[in-house]
Amino acid sequence: MSLISKINTYYHTLRYLKPIQVYYRGLLKVNQYISKGTDIEKLQYFTPFDLILKESIPYNISNNKDEFLFLNLKKDFQGNIDWDYLDYGRLWTYNLNYFEYLDQKIDYSKEEGERLINDFIDKLSINKIGFEPYPISLRSINWIKFFVRGKINNDKYNRVLYYQLKLLTKKLEYHLLGNHLLENAFALLFGAYYFNDIYFYRIAKKILIDELDEQVLKDGGHFELSPMYHSIILFRLLDSYNLISNNNLFNSELKPLIKEKCELMIAWLNAICFSNSDLPLLNDSAFNIAPNLERINTYAKVLGLDINKNTTLKESGYRKFLNDKYEIILDIGKIGPDYQPGHSHADTFNFLLNVNNRPVIIDTGISTYEVNQTRFYERSTSAHNTVVVDNKNSSQVWAGHRVAKRNSVKIIIDDINNIKASHDGYKSKGVNH
Question: Which of 98, 207, 317, 372 could be bridged to 138 by S-S, CB 3.0 to 4.6 A?
C-alpha cells in the first residue's frame, strides 16, 4: 500500500471518531490509562452486601482443572496457569481471564473455583492482559455471581475484587465506546451492589442511562448490528435486572430503564432469529458464544419480564420475510455505528435463507479476531451472499476491526412483501448495486 493510500485509509477511518475517543486514545499512548497503581493491602472497602440473585444462564464453555477449551482450542497448563498465554491469540487469553467457567453448564465445585481465583491472585503482579478493562469487567461480574451463589465472603477475594473495580474506574473504555463501555458499566453496577458503594453506582448509572439510550435502537437491535453481541448485551441486562429486582439498594431507580431495554431487546432477538431459533450469523457472530434464544426467553420469564412483545425490524437495517416454507433474512443497513464499526463486515445486501426450517443459504460467521487472512476473508464481501465487483469490498474493511470508506444505502421500496434498495460501494467502478 502506498503512502498516499495509507493516509487516505487512516483519514476515512479516523474522521468518524468522536472527540472523546480521540482524547482517551491519547491517554493510552502516554500510558496514563493502563497503570495498575494502588497497593491492594491499603485499600478500604465497604462490607459486602448480602446479595440475592436468581439462577442465571450457565456458560457454554469447558474447563477441567488446569485444562481450558475456548474457541475450539484446548490448552492444559498442567499445574502452572499462564494468565498471559498468547499462543492461541488474544481473544483466547481474554476468555481465560473472564472466569466464565465459574458458571459453566456442568456442576462446578466451589473449591475448584476458589483454587483458580487463588492462582490468579498469586500471579497478579505478572498478569497484563487480565488487567485490561474488558476482562476486568467480565471477571468482576463472574466473581460476584460466584461469591453470591457459593456464599463466599473472603477478605482477600473482596479486597482484590474491590481493587479491580477501583482500577476499572480509571480505565473506562471511552476510546472504544460501544459494547465495551457498557460492559464496564455493568461491572461497576454489580460492584456497587456487592459493596453498597455509591461511587461505583454513580459512574455505572450515568454510563447506563447515556449508552443504553443510544445503543439500543428503536426497533430493539443493538447498534453494533451483530446478533451475537446483541445476545451478550441482553444477557448482561437480564443479569442486571436480576440484581436490581432482588436487592433493595439505590432506590431501585434503574429498574424501569433496564426493564424497558430488556423487553425491547428480547422482542428484536425473537424477530431476527429463524423460526428454528437459530441465530443468524450476521456481522461478527458465531454459534455457542452468546446464550441462545431459548435460554434468553426462559431466563427472562423467570425474572417476570414480557417475552411476547413484538417489534418491526427497521432501524437495525435488517428485514425478514417468511411463509410456510421459506424464511429469508437480509441486510439493507449501513455500516454502523459510524464511530465504532469494529464488528461490521462489508456485507451490504447479504441474505440468509432457510427452507422448511433448515439452513440452505448460510453465512460464514467468524472464527477469529486475530489480524490475519482468515479475519480479512470473513469480513470481506466475498464471504457473504451478495455481489462482488472486481474482487473489491463494498466497504473498506481493514485490520481486525477497522472500516475506512463506507458505502451508503438508498431504500427505494420497503413494505411488508417487497424490499428494493441500492448502494454505492462500487461507484469507483461505475457500478450501482
Answer: 98
